Task: structure prediction
Amino acid sequence: MIYLDYQATTPLAPEALAAMLPWLEAQHANPHSAHRPGRGAKAAVEVARDQVAALLPPGGAPSFTSGATEALNWAIKGSRGPIVTLASEHAAVLDTVAAEAAGGRRVTILPVGDDGLVDMDAAASAIRPGTGLVAAMLVNNEIGVIQPIAALADLAHAAGALMLCDAVQGYGRVAIPPTCDLIAISAHKVHGPKGVGALWLRDGVTLAPLLHGGGQEAAGRSGTLSPALCAGFGVAARLMAERRDADAVHGERLWAVATERLRDWHVNGSVERRYRGNLNLRRDGLDVARLMSECRDIAFSAGSACASGSGRSSHVLRAIGLTEAQARSSIRLGVGRYTTEGELQAGLDAIVAAADRQR
Result:
């Protein structure tokens, strides 16, 4: 199996697995218990917190969550006032703001251009005094474009609003502007385990709790933390910091290989303002369902994995102006640290051959 679906999830780093195993095999104490084994588990959680925080701005701290979906729900539901967000956001944001709107909260959804980027003039018109929260994704999970988060944060702060950055796809890869107030991240997108993420809160920012209970996390999140998941997340974050330059060089090389092999395909979204590990491409008239059936030994996505099986075309591709037919003739290839040039080339050859057979 050739794995080309890094935006859906990344392979678990061996070092992260090694950090988790002791907490799964023998060290089972609750990190919120006061006895010695509990204090040891707590210490492991705090080491992991420091490792995760090292890739985040100073002046705040991450609270562990069950993943980015919980983190985004907490940030949105725990804040107050009207919300401004983008049409290309992840469903964890769009569905949550829709739920808030159904409860009477005012929501403005800004369009994006055919490059996938927000129109800053439209943003300036919408983010006015009285706005409570601006929410935008750093790196889009479907088309990889990098939004001007720093400029949006400036508009948010001028209006007295908080800036929420969904940094799930960009964490450890693209610099997160230090002016954000809330940052959501996820372990399994950076070679860590599934089931753990974090919400970073700037010092002084408070949110109403999403989960009520013991209030185990300082920012108010309730629930017993898993030392194993936290340890795996921490080591994965440490590796992202240590391997940042090497991963970036490798990603650029893979991008060059892919775009050369697929030079007659159209890249969806901006090519210039883009994370290179994401290739969202289309060939008009392509039957993607047939393509995936004929390439069963290659893991790639027909759009976002989060919407798989929904029967709907990608809302992000529609937001950048693609027709229904164009959206349905698009695929997403995700590559990264453990993708070899040879397996990428083999995967691309198989995809191109299967696509050519449809002509």
The longest strand covers residues 60-65. The CA atoms of residues 134 and 278 lie 25 Å apart. The two ends are 26 Å apart (CA to CA).
